[in-house]
Amino acid sequence: MKRLIWGCLLPLVAMAIGAAGPAHAASELKIGVLVPLTGTSAADGTRLLNAHQLAAKQINDAGGIAGLGGAKINLVVADTQSKPEVARSETERLISREKVSVVLGAWASATTIPSVQVAERYRVPFVVTSAVTDAITEQSMQFVFRVSPKGSWAAKDVGAFIGDLRQHGVALDKVAIAYEDGPFGQTVSAGYRKELAAQSIKLVADESFRTGSADVSTQVAKIKASGADLVLIVAYIDDESVLVRSMAAQQYRPYILGYGGGHTHPTLLELGDLVEGAFGVVEWMPDLKNPAAKAFADAYKAAYGALPLSNSAQAFAATWVSALGADAAHSADPVAIRDALRQLKLKDGPATLLPNDALAFDESGQNHVSNVMSQVIDGKFVTVWPTNFAAQPFKPRK
Amino acid sequence: MQAVISGLANGSIYALIAVGLTLVFGIMRIINFAHGEFLMIAMYGGFFAWSAFGIDPVLAVVIVTPVVMLIGVGLYKGLIRFALNVPDINQMAVTLGLSMLLQHMALMMFTGNNRLITQPRSTASIAIGPAIIQVPQLIACVASLSLLGLLYLVLRRSDLGLVMRAVSQSRDGAALSGIDISAVYKWAMAIGIGSLGVAGPLMAAILYVNPMVGALFTLKAFVIVIVGGLGSFSGVLIGSLLVGLAESIAAAWFSAAISAAVPFAILLLVLLIRPEGLMSARMR
Fold first, then answer.
1. Which one, of A97, A124, A180, A105, lies nearest residue A338 by Cα?
2. Rg (CA), chain A
3. Does residue A5 lie in a domain region?
4. Whether the predicted pLDDT of A62 surpasses 70
């Protein structure tokens, strides 16, 4: 029995000694990557990981991190299984066992929030790649950084975009919202409502539908009757196609503006002429007028055979930013990297592929980045806003 | 007005799905949780007939229905046959497991992407007074009513129908009178699942196809079948029109969350007032 107890204790003791030993080897920079590789968001996780690996490969192929004497990046990948509790324990493992200097991740807000709390406790910087919940960078945590915009900024950018359209002579006086009645649709539509009120744009119809509805003509009939010129759609791609078809069936062709990566999805283009001219608000587009974006899109396509989606760009930027932080810190020490990340202000280079003038973190760790507007022009998604990143000017409806 | 038209259209589409479920239950006393997944398979059938061979979904019904009927027979021979004499809870586990298996196999084979059938007809519509009805919905509506009529005739007028009703009333009694129970069950599965062969391609033209699409309807079909009375035929029609109408009228007046809860509120109400379902006496 005694032997059994010792048998259990010894590895623990060994681990404790290991933990107390030299923490950060200089020959490599260990970066922890939290992605969902199994579970409901498995497909998203793979796309993110591709981008993380592409960035690491670029850095390592170019001779590693100069500030660390050419140290190579070693990505330690952990699968969150799309579950918050797993994300939390994996973060713990990455930091205490794997001794990573920075953690990146962890896709959705639900898995990101518990993970950043662990990193904060262990005083290891955590770069949030794509989670949008505003509160993540509003809790005055000292080790949290986010490259992606806050969720509520989408509504602000949509408001600004509507203002721009009106300035260009597009008659948009009445706006309607059609949203999916789940947490996603409710959150986003609440943001829209607030923003429209702030800009004193008239909201004439506010209709919700259940995801998976086979028929939304009741809602469409009400929106049509309201005479809205622009319909803000917050829906998953499958519901959006039902909605758009129903609008066409009722001979109602307003401007439409979809939301997020779900809208800028190839499935939507299958609707052909029905979605020609449709706008969408999204965090990034591969055709963004920005040299870093183009270089990333080309490299990603060459490596994986498909164009990257918005979240891949954020994962790519997060990886680069951590490497540059370690480079500036001349150290693999997490606190030194945190301090360096605070000072970082990147105006060019691969990390600047997101739509803002310079990648930098404010005192809450938030990168001030805008969303972009896409429009379906000739059956393709094209960036049309903000003007300095637009691939083409927007096309008014005929 | 629009809400009433949409509700009736939705209701008849629900009926198209629920009728197979109630038939299988009425005759075999098996609760088939995988019903929605067979709908999903039939929808993929309709989609691929259109995308690979350019077959119109309405014509695809003629091709998909026999295929799905054969799948139904295969399901009976290969799986359900063995599950007939085990306790109810095990039967449920079998069909529930089958449902998950089929979902994940579809995910592997067809990926999670949504597939759409796009035709000029997809967005055509007909005005009925102040309201409109979309042509694909109208087609599904007509198909649903004709299918229900046809099945009604089969059950009431044909020998097979007579035998089926006999088995439904008393399995042992029917067996004692020399009815081949196994053959009847086989036909019940063929027709029950086969009715989805009509629903699938028409639904694919209205909605989209993905591996999870069947599950959207399974729960609603159960509500309808229970509201109408398990195994009752006219109950399905009344139940589905009731659910369809209530949903869409609620959507017109309130928010989507409330309208989604309405079918279940009806279910509770019916269970409280008439636990055997609205029309259950008819079948007996």
1. A124
2. 23
3. no
4. yes
In SS3 terms, chain A reads as: CHHHHHHHHHHHHHHHHHHHCCCCCCCEEEEEEEECCCCCCHHHHHHHHHHHHHHHHHHHHCCCEHHHCCEEEEEEEEECCCCHHHHHHHHHHHHHCCCCCEEEECCCHHHHHHHHHHHHHHCCCEEECCCCCHHHHCCCCCCEEECCCCCCHHHHHHHHHHHHHHHCCCCCCEEEEEEECCHHHHHHHHHHHHHHHHCCCEEEEEEEECCCCCCCHHHHHHHHHHCCCEEEEECCHHHHHHHHHHHHHCCCCCEEEEEHHHHCCHHHHCCHHHHCCCEEEECCCCCCCCHHHHHHHHHHHHHHCCCCCHHHHHHHHHHHHHHHHHHHHCCCCHHHHHHHHHHCEECCCHHHCCCCCCEEECCCCEECCCCEEEEEECCEEEEEECHHHCCCCCCCCC
pLDDT of res. A320 = 96
* Contact criterion met (CB < 8 Å) for A249 and B134: yes
pLDDT bin (cut points 50, 70, 90) of residue A5 is: low
A274 at interface of B, judged by CB pairs closer than 8 A: yes
Considering its fold, how many domains does chain A have in total? 2
Q: Reply yes or no: is the peptide bond before residue A386 cis, omega within 30 of 0.
A: yes
- A249 Cβ under 8 Å from any chain B Cβ: yes
Residues A385, A256 share a domain: yes
Lowest mean pLDDT among A313-317, A356-360, B84-88, B279-283: B279-283
Closest CA to B144 of B8, B16, B57: B16
Q: Are residues A165 and A257 in the same domain?
A: yes
**What is the tens place of the pLDDT at every residue in A93-102?**
999 999 999 9
Q: List chain B domain ranges.
A: 2-212
Tokens coding A35: 């992605």
Which of A258-272, B97-111, B197-211 is predicted with the least confidence, judged by mean pLDDT? Answer: A258-272
Give the residue, A3 or B159, on which the prediction is more confident.
Answer: B159
**CA B13/CA B200 separation, integer angstroms:** 10
Question: What is the value of ipTM here, to two decimals?
Answer: 0.77
**Nearest residue of chain B to residue A237 (CA atoms):** B114
A170, pLDDT greater than 90: no
| Single-letter amino acid code for the residue at A191 | G
pLDDT at A23: 42
- Quickly tell me which residue has 């973190």 as its tokens: A361
Mutation target among B123, B219, B243, B253 for the A interface, most CBs of A within 10 A: B123
Distance from CA of B187 to the nearest CA of A (A): 30
- In angstroms, the CA B229 to CA B261 distance is 20
> Averaged over A259-280, what is the pLDDT?
84
- The enclosing domain of A158 has a CATH number of 3.40.50.2300
> Given a cut of 80, is residue B133 above it in pLDDT?
yes
B148 or A24, which is more confident?
A: B148
Write the pLDDT tens digit of every residue in B155-186: 888 888 888 888 888 888 888 888 888 888 89
Q: How confident is the model at residue A22 (pLDDT cuts 50, 70, 90)?
A: very low
**Is A237 inside a domain boundary?**
yes
Please indicate whether, in this complex, the C-beta atoms of A210 and B257 are within 8 angstroms of each other.
yes
As given in the structure block, the two tokens for residue A96 are 């205490």
